[in-house]
Amino acid sequence: MSVEAARAKFQSYLTQKGLRVTSQRLAIFDAAFAQKEHFTAEELLDHARAIDDSVSRATVYRTLPIMTESALLREVDIGKGEKFYFPSSGSTQVAQVVCVDCDKIFEISAPFMEWYGNTVSSKLGLRPVSQRLQVSAQCIAFHDRGACPNRTK
């Protein structure tokens, strides 16, 4: 989905939920979709304020669930008390690999997930609505040389 189509979907979703389309919410959307890597709510706040300095922390924290409910953002929990977000590609066939040395999150195509979800759910008379595969991995370079090539922060 293009950024323009995602923006239209966001505006439509807000209207459908009876919420106003505000410049702050649009700045949050624009900031989120400009990111090339996973980001936290606090990082999104900084990026959104660079677009519109009136964006508040509360608006970011209220807008993130709206964006995840509308399937525009994917929420990733790596078990360290802080959630990460990334624009959704629309595919549910994605697995995450998390580097335990630098917390970088990689997303890879995992086409087997649809088959697996359908197979195990149907055996119980259920239909899958979501699924997640997350692998925690160690950085070989970090353990060999003491530096993680994936570290960006």
Main features:
153 residues, alpha+beta, Arc Repressor Mutant, subunit A, Dna Ligase, domain 1, 2 domains, two-stranded antiparallel sheet, 6 helices
Distance between the termini: 29 Å
What's the helix count?
Answer: 6
For the record, the CATH architecture of the largest domain stands as Orthogonal Bundle
User: How many distinct folded domains?
Assistant: 2
The helix content is 40-55%
Using the coordinates shown, work out and report the CATH topology of the largest domain. Arc Repressor Mutant, subunit A
Order of helices and strands: HHHHEEEEHEH
CATH class of the largest domain: Mainly Alpha
Shape: flat
Largest sheet properties:
3 strands, mixed
Question: What is the typical, i.e. mean, pLDDT?
Answer: 86
Bin the strand percentage. Answer: 15-25%
Structure report:
The chain is of the alpha+beta class and 153 residues long. The chain has two domains: 3-86, Orthogonal Bundle (Arc Repressor Mutant, subunit A); 91-145, Dna Ligase, domain 1 (2-Layer Sandwich), CATH 3.30.1490. Helix content is 43%, strand content 17%. The protein contains six helices and five strands. A three-stranded mixed beta sheet has the order 4-3-5, with no helix packed on it. Strand 3 (94-99) and strand 4 form a beta hairpin. The protein is flat. The model has no long low-confidence stretch (mean pLDDT 86).
